[in-house]
């Protein structure tokens, strides 16, 4: 009876072509008055987690800590709506890169996968050629660049090259790039790799504006584009059929003041056939099997004979021992180049002055 | 499948949880959670361990892969105010602190240390990967192993602090996931981040060490202790009354003990008032227990969560504590540290250590680790007590190397009774390369807390008998003699400003220079190459028409 599964729904199931989802969410701004950028990133994090992507597949980078900042009147919270309606920080957040770790270099290394070997798994983007990746950037930007932490910038050319590296190394199937900064559309102008779709909150020459301030917290809580994006995503559930054309309609000029832009010419499918959950949700492919598997017998380890020596705790502050401590053994290092050169010079001068005949006495 | 009877007993593991609540003199309340997992197993023998039950797998793999003998890591937000709150059960410095003893089979300790910090930064969502050779030291006497063992070769010890490290929910989340019951049952349901971080002091730590299994101490088990200390401020919830309840502190009540725990208890410190006049605890309990902790005999009311009657008919436990006034136990050892001087070139670090015992003197070991960019002048080091010079009986100093190693200074000083000992050393600030500045350099640079380890004389005879079942909070530091107990005190971290260049200047300089060059060169070029010609101005309209008519007449123009 299981073999009679209809083929029709299966084709629909596999039509998108990806098998796993990843998200890289980056907030690039530091300092308390940039609270809204952290709130932006955390609202996208919250939506993406709610729609199914697990923490192990999300790389969250926050350049500063707003929740436990000493200026925050409600610690361990980051709000997106005024009157403290929605705490996007939550109780279950895992930030992978925080504080000074959010740099252009680390961001590009995460994207291209060229990380030092001791980097833990939670800090890596372990995507393959069947992964759909969502990349969200927010912060302060300009025409052709995005500022990281007030001290460095990433240009649109670098970003386009990073995506090309990812394409050549088969690190993504399809990639959705969303950016919420001033003049955000300039960041996707230079893309040239296939299967990229990009959205930005404002065109070149326009500023992205912030939404509303909260008088109790004292700063602006969210940017307009991401605020309306969050409202749109709150209506999406994991089995929703909403597609990318609905996403392009988020935040028209009347609400956003700036004109959001999008770019789909590099995307091979029709944007109308790409579902929102293709990027914001998570695909779980389950294969049901009816075979039985025999478990092997448990391995018994014979307990080796107990040692006869008695252990004891060490004295924490043995005063007499410390006073009479011998100097610790230093690891022996071979002599420095400088010392070797100096000795060579001394020997040369000696033999020059006193003649080479002494040499035969030595050797 | 039929279960196969095994002749060998499976490794035994055991989980205990406890909460100690101590009302403080200033009206604040101190809550200390301890979760202990004991496991009789051997991580060191290859891949023998494959089935984890109560012990978290991520930490077990860390121990076996990096041949760790002892691991102590703590994340703290806030500074412990010893003079107002007394002594904590488990001290910790602000920021992150990590110290590890490796097994003597490790050949490259520095490489293993670097890999270990990276792995831990992934497990605890903290930026521990910033620990490198510039902030790691190798103390020679201060940090002896807290577990059992005979090896004390300090080449296998590494200590590092990150005073700038922020602690927030993202560190608490993976910490809670290491517990056997998670945060779903037992005492861990009280750990809600919105209340825990809205406090004066918050510290969470993980301690792994081998301990004796029984009094004969012929076999060892691995002990994992997860501790969380928090001090709630009297004035935070709004009302200033000396009344606290579990709901007011944690916004939760307890409904059950963790089913995997062999013991789950709450202790409330009622030492000053066992009759119940000054102090009121409800629901009342008749279980009392006495313990020797921090050199004093304290009395506790005990609530056993494994007994169903503790929860009463409402099936939930919300302890209410009310008191009128409270004596403070004056701490015997207290330390402060500050930077003196003016300007951005030189300064002086002052460390003050107070001995408040009326007639006994005791030794303390001071460990100072100063980053390389504060160049200490050790010839200016002075140690004075009561105005007179106090020569330390042991000094270990390792000078710093620029961009490689920090300063390490360890001194064993005998503190005279009822006195203040002042340690001063002058330093000079270095100018960093412009890429070494953090993105917010005007905030300043942190210097980690000093560690003061000491054997403090105790008022009552300490319990050296390790066979009796002791509550967790009194059995952390091993006790070898009756007349004194071991204690660690941390000073404040320092925040110093280094001479910071103006980072907008390169842009300004380029604009100014280009303007000057353009104006100067442009003018010079024009002067040298311009030639002047005389040109008639063009005549007005009337004159032009007149010229046309004249040309037609054949007469010369005007």
Automatic annotation (TrEMBL), chain A:
<keyword id="KW-1133">Transmembrane helix</keyword>
<feature type="transmembrane region" description="Helical">
    <location>
        <begin position="337"/>
        <end position="355"/>
    </location>
</feature>
<feature type="active site">
    <location>
        <position position="140"/>
    </location>
</feature>
<dbReference type="InterPro" id="IPR028361">
    <property type="entry name" value="GPI_transamidase"/>
</dbReference>
<keyword id="KW-0732">Signal</keyword>
<dbReference type="Pfam" id="PF01650">
    <property type="entry name" value="Peptidase_C13"/>
</dbReference>
<keyword id="KW-0337">GPI-anchor biosynthesis</keyword>
<dbReference type="GO" id="GO:0042765">
    <property type="term" value="C:GPI-anchor transamidase complex"/>
</dbReference>
<feature type="active site" description="Nucleophile">
    <location>
        <position position="182"/>
    </location>
</feature>
<keyword id="KW-0812">Transmembrane</keyword>
<comment type="subunit">
    <text>Heteropentamer. Part of the GPI-anchor transamidase complex, consisting of PIGK, PIGT, PIGS, PIGU and GAA1. Interacts with GPAA1. Interacts with PIGT; this interaction, via a disulfide link, stabilizes the expression of GAA1 and PIGK and links them to PIGS.</text>
</comment>
<protein>
    <recommendedName>
        <fullName>GPI-anchor transamidase</fullName>
    </recommendedName>
</protein>
<dbReference type="GO" id="GO:0006506">
    <property type="term" value="P:GPI anchor biosynthetic process"/>
</dbReference>
<comment type="similarity">
    <text>Belongs to the peptidase C13 family.</text>
</comment>
<dbReference type="GO" id="GO:0006508">
    <property type="term" value="P:proteolysis"/>
</dbReference>
<dbReference type="GO" id="GO:0003923">
    <property type="term" value="F:GPI-anchor transamidase activity"/>
</dbReference>
<comment type="pathway">
    <text>Glycolipid biosynthesis; glycosylphosphatidylinositol-anchor biosynthesis.</text>
</comment>
<keyword id="KW-0472">Membrane</keyword>
<dbReference type="InterPro" id="IPR001096">
    <property type="entry name" value="Peptidase_C13"/>
</dbReference>
<dbReference type="GO" id="GO:0016255">
    <property type="term" value="P:attachment of GPI anchor to protein"/>
</dbReference>
From TrEMBL, chain B:
<dbReference type="InterPro" id="IPR007245">
    <property type="entry name" value="PIG-T"/>
</dbReference>
<protein>
    <submittedName>
        <fullName>Phosphatidylinositol glycan anchor biosynthesis class T</fullName>
    </submittedName>
</protein>
<dbReference type="Pfam" id="PF04113">
    <property type="entry name" value="Gpi16"/>
</dbReference>
<dbReference type="GO" id="GO:0016255">
    <property type="term" value="P:attachment of GPI anchor to protein"/>
</dbReference>
<dbReference type="GO" id="GO:0042765">
    <property type="term" value="C:GPI-anchor transamidase complex"/>
</dbReference>
């Amino acid at each position: 009876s299981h073999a009679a599964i209809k083929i029709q729904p299966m084709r629909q199931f596999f039509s998108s072509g990806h098998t796993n989802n990843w998200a890289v969410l980056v907030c690039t701004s530091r300092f308390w008055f940039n609270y809204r950028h952290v709130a932006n990133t955390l609202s996208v994090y919250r939506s993406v987690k709610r729609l199914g992507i697990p923490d192990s597949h999300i790389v969250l980078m926050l350049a500063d800590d707003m929740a436990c900042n000493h200026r925050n009147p409600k610690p361990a919270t980051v709000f997106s709506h005024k009157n403290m309606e929605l705490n996007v920080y939550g109780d279950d957040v895992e930030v992978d890169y925080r504080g000074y770790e959010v740099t252009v270099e680390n961001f590009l290394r995460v994207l291209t996968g060229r990380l030092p070997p001791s980097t833990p798994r939670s800090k890596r983007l372990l995507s393959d050629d069947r992964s759909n990746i969502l990349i969200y950037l927010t912060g302060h930007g300009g025409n052709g660049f995005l500022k990281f932490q007030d001290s460095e910038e990433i240009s649109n050319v670098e970003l386009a090259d990073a995506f090309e590296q990812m394409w050549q190394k088969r690190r993504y199937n399809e990639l959705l790039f969303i950016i919420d900064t001033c003049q955000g559309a300039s960041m996707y102008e230079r893309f040239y790799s296939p299967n990229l779709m990009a959205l930005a909150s404002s065109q070149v020459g326009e500023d992205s504006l912030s939404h509303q301030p909260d008088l109790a917290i004292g700063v602006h809580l969210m940017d307009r584009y991401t605020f309306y994006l969050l409202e749109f995503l709150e209506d999406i559930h994991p089995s929703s059929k909403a597609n990318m054309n609905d996403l392009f309609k988020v935040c028209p000029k009347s609400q956003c003041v700036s004109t959001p832009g999008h770019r789909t010419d590099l995307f091979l499918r029709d944007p109308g056939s790409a579902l929102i959950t293709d990027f914001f949700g998570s695909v779980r492919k389950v294969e049901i099997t009816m075979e039985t598997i025999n478990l092997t017998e448990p391995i018994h380890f014979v307990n080796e004979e107990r040692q006869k020596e008695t252990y004891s705790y060490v004295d924490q502050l043995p005063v007499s021992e410390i006073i009479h401590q011998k100097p610790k053994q230093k690891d022996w290092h071979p002599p420095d180049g400088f010392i070797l050169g100096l000795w060579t010079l001394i020997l040369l001068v000696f033999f020059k002055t006193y003649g080479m005949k002494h040499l035969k006495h030595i050797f | 499948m039929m279960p196969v009877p095994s002749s060998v007993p499976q490794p035994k593991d055991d989980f205990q949880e406890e909460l100690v609540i101590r009302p403080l003199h200033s009206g604040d309340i101190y809550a200390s959670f301890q979760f202990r997992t004991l496991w009789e197993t051997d991580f060191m023998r290859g891949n023998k361990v494959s089935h984890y039950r109560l012990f978290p797998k991520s930490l077990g793999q860390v121990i076996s892969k990096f041949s760790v003998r002892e691991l102590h890591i703590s994340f703290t937000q806030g500074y412990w105010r010893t003079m107002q709150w007394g002594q904590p059960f488990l001290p910790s410095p602000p920021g992150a602190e990590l110290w590890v003893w490796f097994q003597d089979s490790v050949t490259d300790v520095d490489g293993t240390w670097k890999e270990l910090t990276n792995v831990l930064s992934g497990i605890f969502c903290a930026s521990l990967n910033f620990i490198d050779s510039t902030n790691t030291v190798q103390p020679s006497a201060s940090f002896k192993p807290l577990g059992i063992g005979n090896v004390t070769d300090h080449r296998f010890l590494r200590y590092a602090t990150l005073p700038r490290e922020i602690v927030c929910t993202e560190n608490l989340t993976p910490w809670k996931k290491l517990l056997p019951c998670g945060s779903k049952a037992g005492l861990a349901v009280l750990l809600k981040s919105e209340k825990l971080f809205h406090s004066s002091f918050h510290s969470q730590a993980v301690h792994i060490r081998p301990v004796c299994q029984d009094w004969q101490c012929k076999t060892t088990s691995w002990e994992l202790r997860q501790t969380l200390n928090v001090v709630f401020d009297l004035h935070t919830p709004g009302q200033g009354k000396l009344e606290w309840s579990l709901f007011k502190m944690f916004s939760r009540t307890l409904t059950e003990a963790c089913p995997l725990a062999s013991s789950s208890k709450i202790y409330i410190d009622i030492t000053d008032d066992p009759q119940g006049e000054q102090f009121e605890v409800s629901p009342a309990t008749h279980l009392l227990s006495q313990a020797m902790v921090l050199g004093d005999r304290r009395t506790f009311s005990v609530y056993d969560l494994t007994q169903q009657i503790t929860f009463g008919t409402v099936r939930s436990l919300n302890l209410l504590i009310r008191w009128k006034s409270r004596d403070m136990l004056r701490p015997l050892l207290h330390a402060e540290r500050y930077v003196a001087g003016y300007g951005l070139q030189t300064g002086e670090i002052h460390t003050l250590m107070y001995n408040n015992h009326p007639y006994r003197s005791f030794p303390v070991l001071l460990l100072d680790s100063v980053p390389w960019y504060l160049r200490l002048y050790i010839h200016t080091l002075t140690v004075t007590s009561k105005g007179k010079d106090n020569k330390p009986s042991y000094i270990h100093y390792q000078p710093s190397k620029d961009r490689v190693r920090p300063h390490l200074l360890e001194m064993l000083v005998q503190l005279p009774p009822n006195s203040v000992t002042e340690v001063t050393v002058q330093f000079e600030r270095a100018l960093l390369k412009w890429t070494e500045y953090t993105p917010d350099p005007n905030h300043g640079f942190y210097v980690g807390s000093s560690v003061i380890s000491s054997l403090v004389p105790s008022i009552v005879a300490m319990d050296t008998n390790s066979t009796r079942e002791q509550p967790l909070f009194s059995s952390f530091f091993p006790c070898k003699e009756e007349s004194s107990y071991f204690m660690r005190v941390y000073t404040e971290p320092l925040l110093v400003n280094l001479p910071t260049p103006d980072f907008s200047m390169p842009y300004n300089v380029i604009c100014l220079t280009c303007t000057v060059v353009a104006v100067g060169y442009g003018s010079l070029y024009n002067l040298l190459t311009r030639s002047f010609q005389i040109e008639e101005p063009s005549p007005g309209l009337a004159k032009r028409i007149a010229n046309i008519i004249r040309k037609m007449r054949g007469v010369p123009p005007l």
